[in-house]
Design brief:
alpha/beta; six-stranded parallel β-sheet; elongated; binds adenosine monophosphate
Length: about 575
């Protein structure tokens, strides 16, 4: 057999004594390479083999059965026709194909080879068009593989091997590199035609980009996504949506893929000043401005390019404090992109005075959000969430919505919560949504909501963030008079005492009695104070088993505060 190598010349036949069985010598040495298939590749290969000094016949039609002098029959037929064409060949010669995707098993029981030039051919490709191009080669045994290499090098190609199990991945890569590129350029052409410009202006640009990629890999990436210029990307998207809407899904997917590429580039380049550590989400803090949106359409448009990335969502009513910022920190840590909503939801307020007095600190909220690295800041008005024709209500039933907060704020409270949370989850479609343990019953209600409605989102519970003196952070704390601010400390004191009593193994009744004594010391009359089973918010009786929560609510002047402590 002949050994294929870069220095091998056709005619340098060498007999290999270790070959498993006699190997047919190639081409002009003792026989003929018969090419089957009159398509583009067959038509290029026949003259190419001839001018490389091989003895060649063909291109034959697909019914070709082989001739006595054939040492190799090379099938240049469509993938789907390889097996049937190979079955027609009389036993004897090596049977080969030129497909990247088709397994060698398709030519069984023949011994066989495959030679897949990594090149696209057109009707006018010259025979010399094969010189210098890479070719994936394979053989059913070592000797056959050497024959494939020999033919490839004889044609001036640069052979390399691909394992049979890797064929689909290899071939997909070639399809992306070649076929998809044509798709991409055609999309660009379609769009530029709407401007009245000849698509030919794009060709030098496309060539240069490709050459740059060849030299620099992904570093060759330029343009608004690489620069983090979201405003320009948004304007592109609007133009694509208006001019060539069919191209929009492809555009969005490519934006997402390009963003991932930019991110992975900055990950391997620690000198990039916009990244400071593995925990930091690259797309946000410091690298691109936060997007502020007020309508559902703008929100959807902002998120559309990022659907391939993980999205974390933090719903709030604004007046952001450290508790909210902790939710954002967790969301940023866990996700590629963070959406914050600021909406004081009228539907969950039973008391109009409380709604009117609810603090609104828009400018400060934006600044906090930007510092926290929020990507999309969604601040709708009430008529965006509840347009005039709006009539829907999403309502859970049972103790979790009827007891405690449900009882004291009225059944409409949790219906307001579940309705708005459902809407926000449907608009944003986050992978994860973050809720504070501070609102323990709300957290449980939201968990039940997504379970009941099979909403595909992970609800992440974040522990309560407290002031140094123990008061749970709340947007309403700013409304406390200095005197009530001091008295409010009694809430956490009482809860802590309750937990200490729980840790001594006491019953729910004595846990509550212990906590109540502390509330009394602070002159706090609770709206409720109870140990509840976390699952259903039913009051625990006797020694709490499973996860239980000691919950409290009380009014301080006009300001209603709630707090809780987990017993476990
Ligand atoms: P709000 O703006 O009060 O509706 O709260 C928005 C989210 O922040 C809810 O999931 C709350 O449970 C959560 N949250 C509020 N205060 C705190 C806090 N002190 N610690 C942790 N999470 C909190």
């Amino acid at each position: 057999m002949t050994q294929g190598s870069g220095t091998q010349q056709p005619g340098d036949a060498v007999v290999d004594p270790t070959a498993p069985e006699p190997v047919p010598a190639v081409g002009h040495r003792t026989g003929t390479i018969a090419v089957v298939g009159r398509g583009r590749l067959g038509s290029v290969l026949v003259p190419a083999l001839g001018s490389a000094g091989f003895t060649v016949s063909g291109p034959h039609g697909r019914g070709y059965a082989g001739q006595a002098e054939d040492t190799v029959v090379l099938l240049c037929v469509p993938d789907a026709a390889i097996a049937s064409a190979s079955r027609l060949i009389t036993e004897g010669p090596l049977v080969g194909h030129c497909s990247g995707a088709t397994a060698l098993a398709s030519i069984a029981p023949h011994r066989g080879i495959s030679i897949h030039p990594v090149m696209t051919f057109t009707a006018d490709t010259a025979p010399t068009g094969l010189v210098g191009i890479p070719a994936a080669v394979a053989g059913t045994d070592a000797a056959a593989l050497d024959t494939a290499r020999d033919i490839a090098t004889g044609l001036g190609m640069r052979p390399f091997t691909v394992a049979e199990s890797d064929r689909p991945a290899y071939h997909a890569a070639t399809a992306i590199a070649a076929n998809f590129l044509v798709t991409l350029e055609s999309a660009a052409a379609e769009l530029i035609r709407t401007v009245g410009v000849d698509p030919a202006v794009l060709l030098p640009l496309a060539r240069a980009a490709l050459e740059n990629w060849g030299r620099q890999g992904a570093d060759a990436l330029t343009g608004p996504i690489a620069r983090g210029d979201q405003a320009v990307v948004d304007s592109h998207r609007q133009a694509v949506a208006a001019r060539t809407p069919d191209l929009l899904p492809m555009f969005d997917t490519l934006v997402g893929a390009t963003e991932r590429l930019v991110r992975s580039q900055s990950e391997v380049q620690p000198q990039n000043p916009t990244r400071s550590g593995p925990d930091e989400i690259p797309s946000s803090a410091g690298t691109r401005p936060m997007l502020v949106v007020n309508t559902v359409n703008d929100l959807r448009r902002a998120l559309a390019p990022h659907r391939t990335r993980s999205i974390g969502f933090v719903p709030t009513m604004g007046a952001l404090h450290q508790g909210h910022l902790e939710l954002l920190r967790r969301a940023k840590h866990d996700n590629d992109l963070v959406v914050l909503s600021i909406f004081v939801n009228p539907a969950q307020f039973n008391d109009p005075a409380d709604l009117a007095a609810y603090p609104r600190t828009d400018a400060a909220d934006r600044a906090h959000a930007e510092t926290a690295g929020v990507d999309v800041y969604f601040a709708p008005t009430a008529d965006v969430i509840y347009p005039p024709a709006f009539t829907a209500t999403v309502a859970l039933a049972g103790p979790i919505v009827e007891t405690f907060e449900g009882a004291h704020r009225g059944s409409g409270h949790f219906h307001g919560v579940t309705t708005v949370v459902t809407k926000l989850l449907l608009m944003i479609r986050p992978d994860r949504a973050y809720f504070g343990q501070k609102d323990a019953q709300q957290l449980r209600v939201v968990e039940a909501l997504v379970a009941d409605l099979d909403i595909e989102v992970e609800i992440v519970a974040v522990p309560t963030v407290r002031e140094p003196d123990g008061l749970a952070m709340s947007s309403r704390n700013v409304r406390l008079t200095p005197e009530n601010r001091s008295r409010a400390l009694g809430l956490h004191q009482a809860l802590s005492a309750g937990r200490a009593s729980y840790e001594l193994g006491e019953t729910a009744e004595s846990i509550v009695a212990t906590a109540k004594r502390i509330l009394d010391e602070y002159s706090i009359t609770p709206e409720y104070l109870a140990v509840v089973n976390e699952d259903d918010f039913c009051e625990a009786v006797g020694t709490p088993s499973g996860r239980a929560v000691l919950i409290v609510a009380a009014l301080f002047g006009n300001t209603r505060l709630i707090d809780n402590i987990v017993l476990q």
